[in-house]
Amino acid sequence: MSDSLYVRLGGTEGITKLAGDLVDIHLANPKISPRYANSNVAALKNGAATFFIAGTGGPNVYQGKDMVATHKGMNISGEEFLAVLDDALEALNKNDVGQREKEEVLFVLYSMKPEIVSL
């Protein structure tokens, strides 16, 4: 039996670094960085990390809203959504994540599109 995605991404420590890098990449991406103006960066990083930890088979430490509640009324475009996926791939590459794990993470993120785009 193979290890969970949580374990393969380095557990809490690895995912926390990955999520922090992802938020930093988002903040530098002109396509989506305006969405984060006046945001609490530490809270964003914590929310992203705990979401990834819980969603990849780790402990259920996420206490945020579900995806629909989080994105409702934001009218996120398909282009913005793809920019987020591109940023996720960049963060995965930066953290030397294996190909199989990259594919799994991107598949999960892409599967959330209906809960995020144009709500």
UniProtKB/TrEMBL annotation:
SUPFAM superfamilies per record: Globin-like
Keywords from the UniProt entry: Heme, Iron, Metal-binding, Transport
Pfam name, any one: Bac_globin
Named cofactor requirement(s): heme
Name listed for the protein in its UniProt record: Group 1 truncated hemoglobin
Originating species: Agarivorans gilvus
